[in-house]
Amino acid sequence: MKKGLLIVFSGLSGVGKGTILAELMKMEDLNLAYSVSMTTRDPRPGEVDGVNYFFVSKKRFLEAVKNGELLEHARFVDNDYGTPKAYVDEQRQLGKNVVLEIEIKGARQIMEKCPDSLSIYIVPPSIEELERRLRERQSEDDQTIMKRVSKARQELKELQESDIYEHIVCNDDLDKAIAEVREIILTEMKK
Questions:
Q1: Nearest CA-CA partner of 44 in 146, 159, 138, 148
Q2: DSSP characters for 1-40?
Q3: CA–CA gap between residue 33 and residue 128 (Å, rounded)
Q4: In the 8-state DSSP scheme, what is residue 71?
Q5: Which class in CATH covers the domain with range 6-189?
Q6: What is the pTM (predicted TM-score) of this model?
Q7: Confidence grade of residue 27 (pLDDT, cut at 50, 70, 90)
Q8: What integer pLDDT is reported at residue 63 of this predicted model?
Q9: How many beta carbons lie within 10 A of that of residue 102, not counting itself?
């Protein structure tokens, strides 16, 4: 059986990553498995432990780092995030294409450890549109939104100065962005 792809899927908070990924996960021919990340942040309304994230204490997260249980880990907007290694390895061995929805620091760690990974970064049409989407979500206060917008400006600058991601997809039209990401994955599956 052919080993599954490791897909690094990143983008700014509020850019529509989750919406794009939800649609891709429905497409059986992509054979996707979602890698659930571990985080120290509190769940948002509707999020389920073990489905959206493994919500853990700071102490448990530090234990996972110390014990080498994470493929990558990073701090983002005052919280820690990491990718549990065992699940990813198991799914890839079963032939599944594992999607890691992670931020840029974690993505760098993954791409260094797994140079065969496929990397896709989703960008917004503008910072103003990103801020509008974050506010529309109504899941965070103004201070947190402004931190995310500031972080977004910094991350976009960093992205422009490097060639870390193989594919950059603009989410100015949701259906078009979904189709573009789908085509990238299908092309890579054929290699």
A1: 138
A2: -PPPPEEEEEE-TTSSHHHHHHHHHT-GGG-EEEEPEEES
A3: 32
A4: E
A5: alpha beta
A6: 0.83
A7: very high
A8: 97
A9: 25
